[in-house]
Amino acid sequence: MSETDPSNNVLLGKNRAVATLCKGMPVQVEFWNVVLTSVAGRVTYELGSGQRKQVTVDGRRPVTVKAPKNFGARDCGGTLTAVYVGKPLAENELPSALDVEQASGAAEFNTDRVAYSAAVMPGSGDDLRKCHL
Predict the structure, then answer these.
(1) How much is the CA Rg of the chain, to the nearest whole Å?
(2) Longest Cα separation, the chain
(3) pTM
(4) pLDDT (tens digit, 9 = 90+) per residue, 64-74?
(5) Could you read off the pLDDT of 107-131 as tens digits, one per residue?
(6) Side-chain half-sphere of 41: how many Cα atoms within 13 Å?
(7) Which DSSP string corresponds to 70-125?
(8) Domain of 120?
């Protein structure tokens, strides 16, 4: 089980399974800043460069992965976090769309490798339409 705390840190293994792994499994946790813009009342987004951290999880103890400094939703910007196994995500595995009108929720990635995701946006409606470059 994975979850994000109020500081955007990711906690892996909070509700540990009964069994543990003989050997730890490498897990990737990746964080992106989401830059929102509005053109003619239509809100679009771009993913900023991601920061990826690899940790090893064996089910014996929870592991907290700290979010990068200055990582968090703000005016005209949101965040995206993903927990997955294997190699770094390729461009075609990233979400093809984010619901920028929803304050928070899971994002749909174009791969089955993502076990947990969280997207946090600054608000909705008129607040988002104020986001101009």
Answers:
(1) 16
(2) 56
(3) 0.78
(4) 888 888 877 67
(5) 999 999 999 999 888 765 565 656 6
(6) 0
(7) T-S-BTTEEEEEEEEESSPPPGGGS-S---TTSSEE----SSS-EEEEEEE-S--T
(8) 2-129
Q: How many domains does the chain have?
A: 1
Q: What's the full length of the chain, in residues?
A: 133
pLDDT along the chain (133 residues), means of 10: 64 56 83 83 78 86 85 78 92 87 84 92 64 52
Beta bridge partners, 30, equal 52, 82
Q: Please, what's the b/e burial string for 96-123 (b: 16 or more CB within 10 A of its CB; e: otherwise)?
A: eebebeeeeeebebeeeebebbbbbbbb
Give the H or E element holding residue 31: strand 25-39
Question: Which secondary structure element, helix H or strand E, spans residue 30, and what is its range?
Answer: strand 25-39
The two structure tokens encoding residue 55 = 């940790």
